[in-house]
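Report of the visiting student (M.T.), summer placement. My assignment was to run the structure pipeline on a short list of targets and document each run. The first record concerns DUF541 domain-containing protein.
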Amino acid sequence: MTDAPVISVRGEAVLEAEPEIARLSVHVQSQESDRRTALDRLTERNQRCLDLVKSYGEAVEKLETGGLSIMPLLKYRRREGDIRAYRGTVWIKITVADFAVLGELVARLGDLERTYVNGPEWELRRDSEVYERAARQAAHEAVARARGYAEALGSRLTGLVELSDEGLSNRDSGAPVALAAGYARAPGGAAEEPEPIDLEPETQIVRATVEARFTATAPDLG
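After the run finished, the structure tokens were exported:
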């Protein structure tokens, strides 16, 4: 152990950055009086949705099926049986890397029959260099703050005792856009493609905090 004075400080950094990816959550549904028909309709609509997303190629970074369900809907809540319909749902998760196609993709997904679109949720990638940059800036601030305290006391820093990372976090995204498609298209042939939705990426706020302890020479308190 050393008897040298110790200066404990906290270093903080707050950075703003443009998002790197956008996540969409899509629910495709069917509802029919017959279970098999409900499943067949769900399969068709799910495939139509997947084909649409895959047509964007590398602009879509990841396409995943989050879950599937087929459930009976009862006529009366207090009685078992008396099934009035079967409802099927497929949950599809989409990660988009090219924001140039995002507005068009959201509009076209929202135009599909029995399809609900939620998003986008703007994010940075887990390995984004922004997190490392924020951590370095927080560490630099801790050193500068400790040095300032030492100079105010007429001493100087001599060593590092401990540096602890309190973690990094990005701000929760704002309320996403929600689109629900109609149950059926208007008669008279194929419908025109919907106009792309103008979506402005949400600035991401990245925070980093570190705590540090430094040894210092004896202060001049005279």
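Strands lie at 6-17, 21-32, 60-74, 83-96, 115-123, 157-170, 177-180, 204-216. The CA atoms of residues 73 and 85 lie 5 Å apart. I thank the supervising group for their guidance throughout the placement.
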